[in-house]
Amino acid sequence: MSPAPAPAAKPGTLQQNDVVIDSVSDTARWAAIYRAAESARADALFDDAYAARLAGDRGAAIAARAPRQMLGGWQVVVRTALAEGCDRVLCLAAGLDMRPYRLAPPTSVTWIEADLPAVIEEKERIIVGETATCRLIRESVDLADPSARGAFLDRALAGAARTLIIAEGLLAYLDEAVVEALARDLARSEVKWWAFDILSPATRNMVMRAMSADLANAPMRFAPPNGVGYFEALGWKTVDIVSVFAEAARLGRLPWFLRLLARLPLPQPDPRRLGGAHWSAVVRCERRADRAAGRKTVGG
Prior knowledge:
Layout: H1 27-39, H2 51-64, H3 74-77, E1 88-92, H4 99-102, E2 110-115, H5 117-126, E3 135-140, H6 146-157, E4 163-167, H7 176-186, E5 191-199, H8 201-210, H9 229-232, E6 236-243, H10 244-250, H11 256-263, E7 280-287
Parallel strand pairs: 1-2, 1-4, 2-3, 4-5
Antiparallel strand pairs: 5-7, 6-7
Helix pairs in contact: 1-2, 6-7
């Protein structure tokens, strides 16, 4: 079965030459429209009843102008991080994600979403009346601001022992210096896992070439040529690497023109030496205990 196309924008709402992505916050709508398309499938991997409402016409317009390789949103569909025995979840740049509602996490888990004020305000306006299944807290914070980020982490992690950090659709839009500072800030004793998605330079360049005008206000910046090795050098131990392409093939979510390629016995790129490979993955890391001993504050 072919992937369900992203819903089309309503006629007259956006013109062909309109700037669709005003800021990086609009990429949350981009992700939401793919979740909506997946949820509409007869063989859906999950059911996100909120996605279409949250994505709106702008999300559909962004998806319609994305590269053909992103047809059906298979990159977003398989970017999933599941907590394993954690007592707290921090979802950084949570955007329009609705996992605390649709995944029914245990009531013992505290789920904290962090994003820019405008994103949180819009989300709460759209989903007013909905109730999460666990304790849910939202905080307005600019994660690129080291002082604000540090104060937020001190508050959010207080009393936690096994925290899962989710950073979905975030790192690619940050400057390398901010990613490095974030990686160091998160390496503290309350944090057990960090799950994030990562692109190779070739994949980042492909998307930017195809959507240079649309992404002018939210360019993709971070795509380390040494892949997961970048984070390992900062005190993280790689636990899982899930190739987005391979997982999409396994789940039957590749667009038709990539299915044949997936059947070929092609060599897989070294996730620590990506070279010119087109590669993206979901990564789960564990904090190395020797890198967080005695750490109490972050930022600065």
